[in-house]
Amino acid sequence: xxDYIIESKELTAGYGKAVIIQDVNFQAxxxxxxxIVGPNGSGKSTFLKTLxxxxxVFNGSVxxxxxxxxxxxxxxxxxxxxxxxxxxxxxxxxxxxxxNLEMGAYARTDKEQIRKDMGEILDIFPILRERQKQKAxxxxxxxxxxxxxxxxxxxxxxxxxxxxxxxxxxxxxxxQIFMKIRDIVNSGVTVILVEQHAKxxxxxxxxxxxxxxxxxxxxxxxKDLLADEKFVExxxxxx
Amino acid sequence: xxxxxxxxxxxxxxSLYTLMALGLTMSFSVTKIANFAHAELVTIGGxxxxxxxxxxxxxxxxSLIAAFFASALLAxxxxxxxxxxxxxxxxxxxxxxxxxxxxxxVVRYLLFIYADLNAVITVQAKTxxxxxxxxxxxxxxxxxxxxxxxxxxxxxxxxxxxxxTKPGKALRAMADNEDLARVSGVKIYTLRRLMWFIAGGITGxxxxxxxxxxxxxxxxxxxxxxxxxxxxxxxxLVSFWGTIAGGLIVGFAENFGITFMNTYFNVSTAxxxxxxxxxxxxxxxxxxxxFAGFDIVGWLKEKVKGGGE
Amino acid sequence: xxIEFLASYMPIFTSFIVLFAIYLIAAxxxxxxxxxxxxxxxxxxFFISVGAYMAGxxxxxxxxxxxxxxxxxxxxxxxxxxxxxxxxxxxxxVGIFVASLVLGAIIGGLFGYAASYPALRLKEDxxxxxxxxxxxxxxxxxxxxxxxxxxxxGLTGIANPLSFVKDVGTRSIAYAxxxxxxxxxxxxxxxxxxKSPFGRxxxxxxxxxxxxxxxxxxVPRVRGEVMVIGSALAAVAGVLRTFYIQGVVADDFQPLxxxxxxxxxxxxxxxxxxxxxxxxxxxTALDQFIxxxxxxxxxxxxxxxxxxxxxxxxxLIIILVLMxxxxxxxxxxxxxxxxxxxxxxxxxxxxxxxxxxxxxERSPSG
Lengths: 239, 309, 366
Prior knowledge:
The complex is a heterotrimer.
Chain A: E1 4-15, E2 18-29, E3 33-37, H1 44-51, E4 56-64, E5 67-68, H2 74-80, E6 82-85, H3 97-104, H4 111-124, H5 126-130, H6 141-154, E7 159-163, H7 171-186, E8 190-195, H8 198-204, E9 207-212, E10 215-221, H9 222-227, H10 229-236
Parallel strand pairs in A: 3-8, 3-9, 6-7, 7-8
Antiparallel strand pairs in A: 1-2, 1-4, 4-5, 9-10
Helix pairs in contact in A: 3-6, 6-7
Chain B: H1 4-31, H2 38-56, H3 60-88, H4 93-117, E1 131-135, E2 138-141, H5 142-164, H6 166-176, H7 178-183, H8 188-213, H9 220-234, H10 240-265, H11 272-286, H12 296-308
Antiparallel strand pairs in B: 1-2
Chain C: H1 2-36, H2 44-66, H3 76-88, H4 90-121, H5 124-142, H6 146-149, E1 155-156, H7 168-195, H8 197-207, H9 209-215, H10 218-245, E2 247-248, H11 255-268, H12 273-289, H13 292-297, H14 307-324, H15 338-345, H16 350-357
Antiparallel strand pairs in C: 1-2
């Protein structure tokens, strides 16, 4: 049996009284990339936020590393080894780049190790080293995305949730971002990736899930999905 | 026209407004609540100070510490008792503002009843005020020796907290983006409590200083609130240094403005509040988004940088 | 005996009715602005005061002019002479009353139009802050200018338009009927407005930024119109009040009045005019009966000014309603359209509702 780092069972969640995702059964294998694709408004982002406890759960459960975390608040989940990179508003604009990175390591207490990690992260993202003292609000879109990922890594997560990391970025930057994500995976972090761009995500991932109207409608290895005629017709169009 | 008296008055009141406005800016930037009950934090601080000094014979220093704790606890109680439960129920932001008006009414008129029963509707902390020097025609008294150092020390301490301590940085992070702070592992409710405690406390101290400086009534906070909002809004309601600049600007604009208008145009000094109101209106109309902020210091820095390069 | 007993309570009853009707006009207009339109006009007292000052200034100046009263504008003598003139010249008295209503509404509307400038541009809470303080600035000016309503002393001698009626009881009942008639007309008007396409547009703009954006240029016009109509109605309430208390004092128009009226709206139920009637009834009762004069009538005396109790209760009501029943006593009903009737008969499709709720992603790339 595969080793799942996170699992959701019959998960139904939303905001206030509105139900947005329903009966979602989802698994992500440790050390792999799992992609979630689907049309706009299909509930992909809401699902990701639900994994982190940022929505209202009506039914079902989330199990992380063998522990039921359904009722835990986000700040506690962060301490258990989950990391999240939001699609937008994913840095603290009025804090300096360095302070942002420190915030990424907020839940950790191992000061020595944090300092080392900071050095390593700045090596991975050299542009951030240059901009250390600048306010994050003054960074470009690509730099911001880098900072957001770097912040999440500062928390030393076991599982990293990425919400459309390449949205609204120039193609060249997108390639860079995906290279970084590959490095992150290679370093042993499990990644769940929500993507609008289905082709890009599915060719990148190990396992893919397709959301529509708040439910999972298809799942399978990314490459199989891309080869599946029904999927291509419904979600990629006849291009 | 001799300007020494308005100058000293401006600095004194400007300092008090700054302290009060820093409390408002802190609570607004972290919680996004335009808290009208902030007025009551000033008043409670003032009354605690005045009554401890006058009835119990405490020194001003001890009384100000008591005022800090009284207003700090009141601020925490407001949040725990009303705002937090409302937010958890998904209340609209504007309802929180209206609820704060409700809190303000309850606290203010309870205090009115207390003050009425004890004949302290108007009161001043009777400290041993001594003249220690003169600046032009204006006298410098022992009260000024309390107001200025406390303001400066508070500002420095807050600055150090916000930039060099973990909770301070986390508060700035929360002000920027609460969800992101949460997923970074910040215990937002604990920090909120800390924030209300400090914001309430410094506001209470400012109220206490005011009660030593002049006569107060249960409405002193409401009277000050217009100036507090004007000062905070000048700083975009989120900027630390902007608020400090705002507090001083309001202090100066009011005292110089009204002295000037009174001397040359025979305008009654009763129109003093209109100056703060005009400041609010001008700032909001120039920067209607308000939220993005009217960061004077940031703006100046940019100008200076831009000019230098 | 019985009749005499009733008669002794009659003034309390009529004064209650008059105040209830005046507050109702104010509350319905605030409900239109805030409940339906989502514009937090927390400077409502200012617009009420505009009508009140208007009535006072217009009456006093006109009477002083046509009756040739030379005593000072603010003097007690002028006040007596004005009352004498108005009670002996019914035509003029009624004419001035009608003129005050019309002019009050127009000037109130103009101020509302001016206030709609920030109302279209500011974020909700900043607008609320500005308007709360606007409410108090008007009072600060009025209490310092002799020429408006005689600064702190207040303007007097604004006799009731019916003061030619010699019997006080009959007169006050007749005036009560006039004020009630205005309240009823206001109710019918706002109720029709709420159910009209304009009312639905208002709610759409209030509830949904997207709808508001899609409607584009319509939004500023709609919000502007609401501010104009709401402020004009508030001013009418002010005019009716001035002629009722036969004078006007600036310090009567504290921000507390706004909060009292706001409580009527919130307690009754925002965007529900029936609820507002209930809210107004409860709050007017509170306003009237928690007063030193009424309590002494009941033989109750306290050591402090009981009006403080009133404001504590208002504050508590605001807090408790917003915490536990933010929709108010009578919640807002669904928008009444032909489609609603249809949906009542057919089964509501749950799946479709889910899709509607699914717009959680506001990606610029989407």
